[in-house]
Specification:
By secondary structure, the protein is an all-alpha fold. 77% of the residues lie in helices and 0% in strands. The longest helix is centred in the first third of the chain and has 33 residues.
């Protein structure tokens, strides 16, 4: 090959790798703010890192001691169970189903109706988490709005935050996050071709048959994607539960984020707390892989 033919080839090869330079800033940000903290957390989970006591004076590598302690701790099993109950109740069933129902009811409605209902539902989503927690605490409190309503009806007051604490935080998270699912499903339902539904009506299909055999299969990918996003968001809910119940009474609403916080920043056992955080990360990864596999199928 002569030199005149080699020059364009070398220039073309150089251009094929030019895209790497444009990705370098993003890669640097990912390494500094995402990869490095994860690796550091992974390392600290194998140490005796603490804020007080002898362990705070000298950092030591203790191997799998934190993980052995974690899987032998009954409180961890309680926290995992509470996390799954909170996740299924508020995300899988609550936000997903309620968001879909609201979006379905708003379909084909006029613009004014959709705007009013959408604004009402969005009010909970745009409200900061701590403000949402205080609002729901005032609603479910001993002298709150709910007891005022049932007292007006002649029903004795109920200590909702103590008798059914998990139900109260589940309902609070549903109210706070349903708008996201509503917006996702509303966009998906608007893309369902009207011609298909009209043809099904002509063929004698009922509304339920259209919903189960046309609408839901058509937006199946959207349902799975929304489920994954809502699940990951719900796994990290901390402020809402902590402000309403503090994880109590006892350990009734102590989810993994609450338990991790208590171990790391209340008991000052940062090494043990980071090990629990990795368990939470592993749970999120497993659920994400399950949803991604479902989307492929």
């Amino acid at each position: 090959m002569n030199s005149s033919a080699a020059l364009p080839l070398a220039h073309k090869k150089k251009r094929s790798y030019a895209w790497i330079y444009f990705l370098l800033p993003s890669i640097a940000v990912m390494l500094v703010f995402f990869i490095y903290p994860i690796l550091l957390t992974f390392y600290y989970s194998f140490t005796n890192l603490a804020l007080t006591g002898e362990a705070a004076k000298e950092l030591k590598f203790i191997g799998l001691d934190n993980y052995v302690r974690m899987f032998q701790d009954p409180s961890v099993r309680v926290s995992i169970w509470n996390t799954l109950v909170f996740l299924i109740g508020s995300a899988v069933i609550g936000q997903q189903v309620l968001g879909f129902v609201i979006a379905l009811l708003m379909k084909h409605k006029n613009r004014l109706f959709r705007r009013v209902i959408g604004t009402i539902v969005l009010a909970g989503w745009v409200t900061p988490e701590i403000v949402c927690a205080l609002c729901l605490y005032s609603f479910f409190g001993d002298e709150g709005t709910l007891n005022a309503i049932i007292g007006f009806l002649g029903i004795p007051d109920v200590a909702w935050l103590y008798t059914v604490p998990m139900l109260t935080v589940i309902l609070a998270n549903i109210w706070h996050g349903t708008a996201f699912s509503m917006l996702v499903f509303q966009a998906a339902l608007d893309d369902v071709p009207n011609e298909i539904e009209e043809a099904a009506v002509v063929d004698g299909a009922s509304r339920m048959q259209i919903l189960l055999r046309i609408t839901i299969p058509y937006i199946k990918q959207t349902i799975t994607t929304n489920m994954m996003l809502v699940t990951l968001q719900t796994l990290g809910v901390f402020g809402l539960i902590y402000a309403m119940t503090g994880g109590g009474p006892g350990t009734a609403t102590t989810t993994l984020p609450i338990f991790m916080y208590n171990q790391a920043f209340v008991n000052y056992q940062l090494g043990y707390g980071t090990a629990i955080s990795l368990l939470l990360l592993l749970l999120g990864i497993v659920l994400s892989l399950f949803y991604i596999r479902s989307m492929k199928e």
